[in-house]
Amino acid sequence: MKVHFLTENALEALRVNLNGNIKHYADKSNDWIYNYFGEESPFVEYKQEFPEFKLFFNKDDDVGKNDVKNTMILYSAMKSLTDTQATDERLWSGMCHCDCWDFLQTRWQVKDYHDLSDTKVKTRFF
Predict the structure, then answer these.
(1) Predicted structure pTM score
(2) DSSP 8-state secondary structure symbol assigned to residue 98
């Protein structure tokens, strides 16, 4: 499975303009990100391929249980990352803004942008 990371410039632009974009973090799709950056894609395909994985969320289960299951899923799929790679914010923010967008919308159960704050977006997407 291929995942995507954010370029350094894209990561910084999203972080600096968070307040102007905050309402979009409640959008059902991440199309706004592509529109925001225009012709230049903010994402780059990560050079390493990982086993196929799918993050899991069951609203009837305890949220903590879901998080533990997803931690194990991610670790199992991405355990080949070096410490340096695993601590690169561009990778995790890229996955949050691209590959895991749908999961995060479900996980955080965002109904509309009034459910969001800059602190919530910073801790959940960056």
Answers:
(1) 0.92
(2) T
